[in-house]
Amino acid sequence: MRLDPASLTQEERYKVMIGAIVPRPIALVSTRAADGRTNLAPFSFFAGVGSNPMTLLVCPANTDTGGEKDTLRNAKPIAEGGTGEFVVNVVSHAMARRMAACAETLPHGESEFDLSGLTPVPSERVAPPRVAESVVSFECVTRQVIRTNPGAPNGGNILIGEVVLVHVRDDAINDRRHIDPAALDAIGRMGGFAYCTTRERFTLPMGRTALDATSPGAPPVLGT
Ligand SMILES: Cc1cc2nc3c(=O)[nH]c(=O)nc-3n(C[C@H](O)[C@H](O)[C@H](O)COP(=O)(O)O)c2cc1C
Is 26 close to ligand 1, i.e. is its CB under 6 Å away? Predict the structure, then answer.
């Protein structure tokens, strides 16, 4: 089947993307509004950008009516009316329910921290708090927002942040800076309401030796 995005509804395009781009890591993003209220929301259109400087991106889409979600409104640069800061908290399996609860749209003045029971801890280099339960948190200063369809319902936005401080739970990293995937126990988002764990893993070298390598759990070479 061939699908021309122009002949699909926005909902269908979204379904194809979230079903095919899997698994997606989840950024639980904390921000602070100009009036000091904190906000916490999950985003799975999330990726690293580069390590020099250490940069990541999160994509809070426009709302169904074309407005900005609170996360984008809060985290956009000061010059654009935001506070220019956010924290990305990585989501472990044990946090899954509380993370999903944070996708609730709350009335003005109510906090997702209270609703979910997740614990805010003061950050050190930015104003929004980090989440105590997260094994890894990235304190970020917003560098840029790229809007792919400003003001349009569900238009995409790329929020780019430079990481100014990383928090890692002591037992989850060694002195060679390897993060222990078992301690992190990250989950990913699949299509619909589905999630996956990162508990089944295999290793492969890069390049042509990948075709010959035998390692526990590694898949067969395609077609053999
Ligand atoms: C696991 C998960 C991943 C999500 N990923 C995204 C995403 O990448 N982009 C987006 O705009 N909304 C995403 N959402 C929905 C937002 O979390 C939801 O719209 C939230 O209410 C936004 O909060 P805010 O208005 O406080 O920023 C996701 C929800 C869940 C549960």
Answer: yes
